[in-house]
Amino acid sequence: MNRLVVALCLSIALANFGCGGKSQPAAGMLYDAKAQIGIAKEAEAETLASQEFADAEQMLAQAETVLEMGDEHQAYRLGMRAYLKARLAEASAILRRNETQAIEITKELESKLRAADAALRQLEGAENELKRLKATPP
């Protein structure tokens, strides 16, 4: 009885492995690519890295089509490319957002430096005027 249960479990496991095992890496890669595209979308890659984002979505669609046609190897490769393009889109979006912030901060800093220079000139002028007033007799 015990051997029968073990044999039954083993045959079920082998059947699952034989039927679903081949496409498991491809399906997993497509899942990862979809997740990474979602992450890239959250990083605003649709607008900040639109070409890379569009490429990732297109490659994912191709991978899904190829997987439905049964070519797991090609689906895996396209899924990997979609995943990598989505990572690139995310990184590009973050970089562009950081560059924009750096430009804005630089402009703000330059404005504050100009204001500080103007205040320094006013202070120097006031000090000179005070010296002049002290030097003149009443």
Question: Mind explaining what this structure looks like?
Answer:
The protein starts with a helix and ends with a helix. Residues 1-22 have low confidence and may be disordered. α2 runs antiparallel to α4 (50-68). Helix content is 91%, strand content 0%. The chain has 138 residues and is mainly alpha-helical.
- Characterize the biggest β-sheet: none
By DSSP (H or I, 4+ residues per run), the number of helices equals: 5
Binned strand content: under 5%
Order of helices and strands: HHHHH
The termini sit apart by 122 Å
Uncertain regions: pLDDT < 50 for 5+ in a row?
1-22
Mean pLDDT: 86
Given the C-alpha coordinates, what overall shape results?
Answer: rod-shaped
